[in-house]
Design a protein that fits this description.
This protein is α/β, with parallel strands linked by helices and 643 residues long. Helix content is 66%, strand content 6%.
């Protein structure tokens, strides 16, 4: 764990895709901008959305398709604002909040964002676990436990780079789309009825069901209630943090023309990706409407129930299998982007960076533990309630992401000529008001439902107090940016300020440590180290013995390999002495990274020279990650020589 001393979002992949290269002309340059929105779009079709889509289709047929379209347009507006913040200011939403709000407010915003990400992860875990159970018959609690393994998949994807990760996510989206396309073709919905669903209306259940001759099966939920659920489950707060960081993986020309081009192609990227998400959500609703509503099965609102009924209703055993595969792909794609959002939130608010695999494990365990407890104590039938709970928790955070975002992209002092126009501001605030109102209404409904039951008086007081605190916090997040007079003029900064070169403090390295692996590459390392030295520099040559005996006995080992390593180390020491450099050889044992760190600290070296072999992905697990492990634990300069 370490403090970040820079303001680069997702530093490992920041500006790693060069859109300015002369080799990228025409469609190649356009395609180089495409990708970030696809990672964002998976949040709009994650397992948390499936329940509302299934319920809307099975209970009200095609009549609520327009709600999906409207929520998609809202999402497109907000995501384009998020991308604008990242492209113009070079800040993600978490960083912008940190620079604007007081420390205490930022801490609260960070906690809320972390809770929202854990809640989103919970929905993804349950979706994947249900998909695994439906496909293999494995108990749900085992499916939940298996999802821990995708931690290592994410780590592998991060090693491959952002473009490979984008390709992986696009592949999963394609799997989801193909699965539902096949099921839609099998179901064969009436196109005329589907198109009528795009006309805004909130049908009365009595009239709709009477026309179908199903008056004895009226749903408990009104069309308005389900519409609120669909909209509330669509826009995800973590996606706003995510998009503002992902667009910064593109290296662009920091000119007015370059920024305009980036904004244009980013909007096209968002429009295409979010429309794919809309089509997939619409496919779920249309499938439910065709298979269930049209046949009188209006009580289908659970994922497992839909899976069980699909094959019998469509007369194809393949239909349920495709449904389960799409569910697993949806959960897996969402969990990758959720972890990236967690990294952005932690680094942006706290300037704190932890190992990606540790970050993933912490987030995953926070989501897995409640899922396992609920399944173990209450049984698998309560899983859908847990899914609903995760969506309610997500709703809590939405306003605290949307409201600051609109403030930031409207501010001419920081956005310059790229601040959004008044008409866009009006639309953005209108969307924010609708979303906050719908989410407050949903939360109030949940609270009233609890109060109607015989709950504890103390719990009721806590709920009321939490509600008031939530509303006051929301008001504060709206008002503070308007009242703050000390905003930093953090408009587009092309280059850092030049402080002058006349007072440079040039370091002198009197003791340089060199990590040797006794391969043909050691000569390159020694040459690089000598290039940093003066005549009075002393060299510390380090080699770590990793033989089985050395691992078992450590310094007490006396095996053949250790003896030969001592001889070779002494040979290098003598060669350096012949060149006039004082030098010393030290052997370490067992763990390379830990021993190098220990020896460097004990010898109080001024610099460390290490070799990088260019291992990526799976080879990192086999050969280790010595360079990364070492450089995060020592405070001296580390010269990494590519071998």
């Amino acid at each position: 764990m370490s403090k970040k001393h820079d303001d680069i979002s997702l530093s490992e992949v920041h500006e790693s895709v060069d859109t300015t290269s002369v080799k990228k002309q025409g469609w190649r340059r356009v395609l180089s901008f495409f990708g970030p929105a696809y990672l964002v779009s998976v949040g709009y079709m994650d397992p948390g959305n499936w329940a509302t889509d299934l319920a809307g289709g099975s209970k009200y047929g095609y009549t609520l398709i327009w709600v999906l379209l409207m929520s998609n347009l809202m999402a497109l507006l907000l995501q384009s604002l998020s991308a604008r913040l990242g492209i113009v200011r070079g800040r993600d939403l978490a960083q912008a909040n940190r620079e604007t709000y007081p420390k205490k407010m930022n801490f609260i915003l960070w906690v809320l964002a972390e809770i929202a990400i854990a809640a989103c992860d919970l929905a993804e875990i349950l979706g994947m676990a249900i998909g695994i159970q439906l496909l293999t018959g494995l108990p749900l609690i085992w499916g939940v436990s298996i999802t821990v393994l995708d931690t290592f998949l994410l780590l592998y994807l991060q090693r491959l780079g952002i473009r490979k990760m984008e390709a992986f996510i696009i592949g999963l989206i394609a799997v989801i789309g193909i699965c539902f396309l096949v099921n839609i073709i099998i179901a064969d919905p009436h196109l005329h009825d589907v198109l009528k669903g795009l006309i805004p209306s909130l049908p009365d259940a009595k009239d709709l069901y009477a026309a179908k001759g199903m008056s004895n099966a009226l749903p408990r939920e009104t069309a308005l209630y389900l519409a609120i659920g669909i909209i509330g489950a669509t826009v995800m707060p973590h996606n706003l943090y995510l998009h503002s960081a992902l667009v910064q993986t593109r290296k662009i020309k920091k000119t007015n023309q370059g920024i305009k081009q980036a904004l244009k192609y980013s909007f096209i990227d968002s429009a295409v990706a979010l429309n794919i998400a809309f089509l997939i959500n619409a496919a779920i609703l249309i499938l439910a409407a065709t298979v269930f509503f049209q046949t009188g099965k209006t009580d289908v609102g659970e994922i497992k129930q839909a899976h069980e009924l699909l094959s019998p209703m469509l007369g194809s055993s393949f239909a349920s299998t495709l449904f389960a595969i799409a569910l697993i792909a949806s959960g897996q794609s969402s969990t990758v982007t959720g972890t990236l959002a967690g990294q952005i939130v932690m680094e942006g608010y706290l300037r704190l960076r932890i190992n990606p695999i540790m970050r993933r494990l912490i987030t995953r365990l926070i989501a897995i533990i409640p899922a396992i407890i609920v399944i173990a104590v209450f049984g698998e039938e309560e899983v859908d309630s847990l899914l609903i709970f995760s969506q309610v928790v997500l709703s809590l955070q939405l306003g605290f992401a949307v409201i600051p975002l609109i403030h930031f992209v409207s501010d001419k002092r920081t956005m310059g000529s790229f601040a959004i126009k008044p008409v866009i501001q009006f639309l953005a605030w209108l969307v924010a008001s609708i979303l906050v109102y719908l989410n407050l209404k949903m939360l109030a409904g949940e609270a009233i439902r609890f109060f109607d039951s015989s709950g504890s008086g103390m719990v009721k007081i806590i709920i009321v107090a939490a509600g008031l605190f939530f509303i006051l916090l929301l008001i504060y997040s709206i008002i503070f940016p308007l009242l703050a007079k000390n905003k930093k003029p953090a408009s587009i900064q092309m280059h850092p300020d030049i402080l002058g070169l006349q007072n440079l403090d040039i370091p002198v390295y009197k003791k340089i440590a060199i990590g040797l692996d006794f391969s043909e590459n050691d000569i390159k390392l020694l040459a690089a180290a000598i290039g940093q030295a003066r005549q009075d520099t002393r060299f510390i040559l380090i080699h770590v013995v990793e033989s089985p005996t050395a691992i078992l006995l450590g310094e007490e080992t006396g095996d053949y390999e250790t003896g030969k390593d001592k001889e070779r180390l002494e040979l290098f020491v003598n060669h350096l002495k012949e060149k006039g450099f004082e030098s010393e050889g030290i052997l370490g044992f067992r763990h390379s990274a830990k021993e190098i760190i220990r020896i460097v600290k004990e010898e109080k070296a001024d610099m460390l020279v290490l070799g990088a072999h260019g291992h990526t992905g799976l080879k990192d697990f086999i050969y280790g990650e010595t360079v990364n492990a070492v450089r995060h634990e020592i405070k001296i300069p580390v010269l990494v020589v590519n071998l």
